[in-house]
Amino acid sequence: MIEILKAILFGIVEGITEWLPISSTGHMILLDEIVKLNVSEDFYSMFQVVIQLGAILAVVIIFWNKIWPFGKKGNRAPLSENGIGAWIKGDIFVLWFHILVSCVPAAIVGVLWDDLFEELFYNPTCVALALIVFGVAFIIVETKKHGHNAKINSVADITYTTAFLIGMFQLIAAIFPGTSRSGATIVGALIIGVARTVAAEYTFYLAIPVMLGASLLKIVKFGLSFTPMEAVILVVGMVVAFVVSMFVIKFLMDYIKKHDFKVFGWYRIVLGIIVLVCGFVGLI
Fold first, then answer.
1. Residues 55/127/233/43 CA torsion (nearest 10 deg)
2. Number of structural domains found in the chain
3. Measured between alpha carbons, how far is 247 from 265 in angstroms, rounded to an integer?
4. What is this structure's pTM?
5. Which of 94, 173, 175, 281 has the fewest other C-beta atoms within 10 Å?
6. pLDDT tens digit string along 121-170?
7. d(C-alpha 182, C-alpha 202), whole Å
8. Residue 272 is part of which domain span?
């Protein structure tokens, strides 16, 4: 029962921090320093990634009509007026091609050097530094962008070049935990002129193949030899992450219509300093 309660806590933290630009991986690493799951190191390494599948499902459900590329209803760009083409949503296929372009840099690096980066950078000090650096970046970018009109005001306006540039920013998060995948892509998108709401929406879409690919990679490396307790812990974590994500995604989309991301930048800086201090005095 204690381990299940811990899994619930991990699911709550994942569901909140995956979508807010404050680093889910960083928070999971820090949480592990405080609340240890009674599992093997190999299982935990897999768990902290695969638990994201619950969060992915929330995105799929909330944005289903905007990401499912088949069906006549609401088809604004059919390939043809009749036949099979009338069931294919051309604009959504283009969106997915853009998303795949954004995924290429992180996918290549993740497949080749995932274990190396995990060994080098998955520790409280690196997490704290990444939290602070990108916290400062949020504040600077939002300050400079204040009062300036965005060049890209809808997801449909994102070009292949823009998609690739966003993918390069996402690559930073793939290397340094604590950066935040959503944080890196949002900062990058804002820098190149993407509107705040569009940047957030695009990073939700981008999470689907990125997190699905990372989860499958971890499962393949770990194998399917779960103990009954490990299976329960994983399922509980994913279910809780899904439920919490449903609320957090809707909250964030409403929040950024009226506010900027500076509050998340300040949060990252404060948390990063606390982590550095705690590490210095030996609390973590």
1. 120
2. 1
3. 21
4. 0.87
5. 281
6. 778 888 889 999 999 999 999 998 877 888 999 999 999 999 999 999 98
7. 9
8. 2-280
